[in-house]
Amino acid sequence: MARRAIASVAVALGAALTLSGCLGDSKSDAGSDPVTPGTASPAASSPSGAGTPTDTASPADSSSPGGGAAPTPNGWKTVGGPENQLALAVPPNWTPISLTPGDLADRLDQVGIQGADQATIKQGLATLQARKAIYALDPKSVVDGYATNVNGLCQTTGGITPDLLKSAVNSGLTRVGATDVTTTDMPMAGQQGVRADYKLRTGAGVLEGRQYEVIGQDRLCVVTVTAREGRMPSEADAIASTLRFT
């Protein structure tokens, strides 16, 4: 059972890492400056379908579905919904990106990613589109072509149980090449979840990751925040604490 649980977590993590930061690694055209994906207004052309962002400018409301989630802070945007099996909120300056194929193309155009780079990104996100993942980035964080980002997805538990989750997360991260892994308990969505901090060496340099995993409503949900080493956003835990099952 433990081996099966570790494999389940590794699959979820591998999918999450596929999405981490990929929108920040591109240039709009050969010979151009690195893309700074902050030119699109989050409210413009609100995407539909998987990962649909919803502006939440109303006062925080703790009575929303998915009891146990932290209230959504004023002005934060909700990303996700029933099609994604989870939803969470991101700060007002972050940009939600819909992974619905048609909406993805429009959103990439808006942030200035076009041509061959857009095609490469679409190909890389195919798996995440199939998994109905949600994604948002902080456009102000772009440094040397990398944007701080968050993604989330859910899958079947694969037999994992809450008491095995922490060890499975630790082993799963190590299995996919993460280093300096530390895990702590963290309540999310009314359940006991796990927070894991780690580093990952990639073609974009050393990245710092913080992954949150929680089991509820017969699913394992994974939220991953990724940034340049030393640039983990102070809002990371607050973002994860708004997670709710949908």
Topology diagram in text:
Blueprint (H helix, E strand, L loop, with lengths): L1 H18 L33 E3 L21 E5 L4 E5 L4 E3 L3 H10 L4 H10 L1 H5 L3 E4 L11 E7 L6 H14 L3 E10 L2 E12 L2 E12 L2 E10 L7 H6 L2 E2 L1
Antiparallel strand pairs: 1-2, 2-3, 3-11, 4-5, 5-6, 6-10, 7-8, 8-9, 9-10
Please provide a written account of the structure.
- The chain is an alpha+beta fold.
- The chain has one domain: Protein Transport Mog1p, Chain A.
- Helix content is 26%, strand content 30%.
- The chain has a seven-stranded antiparallel sheet. The chain has a four-stranded antiparallel sheet with strand order 1-2-3-11.
- Helix 1 crosses helix 5.
- The protein is globular.
- It starts with a helix and ends with a strand.
Terminus-to-terminus distance = 27 Å
* Number of strand elements: 11
Q: Strand-residue fraction?
A: 25-35%
- Report the CATH C-level class: Alpha Beta
The second-level CATH architecture is: 3-Layer(aba) Sandwich
Structural class label: alpha+beta
The mean pLDDT is: 72
Number of domains: 1
Q: How helix-rich are the residues, as a percent range?
A: 25-40%
Low-confidence stretches: 1-11, 18-65
CATH topology: Protein Transport Mog1p, Chain A
